[in-house]
Amino acid sequence: MIFPIFFTFFLLLSSSHASVQDFCVADLTAPEGPAGYSCKKPAKVTVDDFVFSGLGIAGNTTNIIKAAVTPAFAAQFPGVNGLGISLARLDLAVDGVIPFHTHPGASEVLIVAEGTICAGFVSSANTVYLQTLEKGDSMVFPQGLLHFQVNGGDTPALAFVSFSSPSPGLQILDFALFKNDLPTPLIAQTTFLDVAQIKKLKGVLGGTN
User: Fold this and answer.
1) Which residues contact 96 (CB under 8 A, 6 or more apart)?
2) Residue 167 forms beta bridges with which residues?
3) Residue 37 parent element (H or E)
């Protein structure tokens, strides 16, 4: 029951992205630009460009966040290029978390397929919208706003998400702060975090400086 609901909603979401041409299958041999990938020549397009099987495979959650995201964006699913849509699978082990992150290029709709997920986002007015979602529940995350998902139960959780862009983009807040060479004193000054805690997080996530 849950999959027909999800894909019906997904198709409705995509209806506002009509095009004057049938499709623009991504040419992955060319670089991606601000408007997406250039179109593959029609003579080279095959049915395989419109089929993606990865969402049926569980992601590897044996990592620091105990979670995995399997994307079906234009880079993995060339047929969605230019259509204003994409998909992803979200696997959350017990205690799994997708940290605060944002998609600069798309809004997101999540539907829980298994388990319990605590999800929320923060508006530009710093208002928090938080909900515990059960199987069959959906939640929308507006474009560009910080949001997160946490396994809120004692069993693994599974969700599927759709995006309003074939390339929604992704920036994880923790990685932006602690998984690069941004100087620790600047992070401390701009976040009010303790230097020792910053260095600890950099050590965990692979940051330097």
Assistant:
1) 61, 65, 66, 67, 150, 151, 156, 157
2) none
3) none
